[in-house]
Predict the structure.
Amino acid sequence: MKKDVCRSCRNKKKYGSQDAAQQRATFMYRKGLQLKPYLCPVCRGWHLTKINWRSRLNRAFAEAGLDPVFVMRRIHADQS
Ligand SMILES: [Zn+2]
C-alpha cells in the first residue's frame, strides 16, 4: 500500500455508499462541476474524482474507435 495513496485518501471526502457519492456528484454537476464516484481500494469507501476535459475527449475518441493515447500524446506535444 503506497503512502501517497493514503494521503490522497485522507484529503478526499469519503462517502459510505455509491448512492451517497452519486447524489453529491449530481449536486455538483448542477453547479457546473463534473465528478465521478469511484470505490477506493484503500479505505473501501467512495470518493469523487474530477472528470476533466481530457478524459472526456479520450472517451469520445474511444467511442469513435480511435486510439485515446493519440490524444494524450498530442496534448503533451502541444504543451511542451
Ligand atoms: Zn479512500
User: Anything to note?
Assistant: The two ends are 33 Å apart (CA to CA). The mean pLDDT is 79.
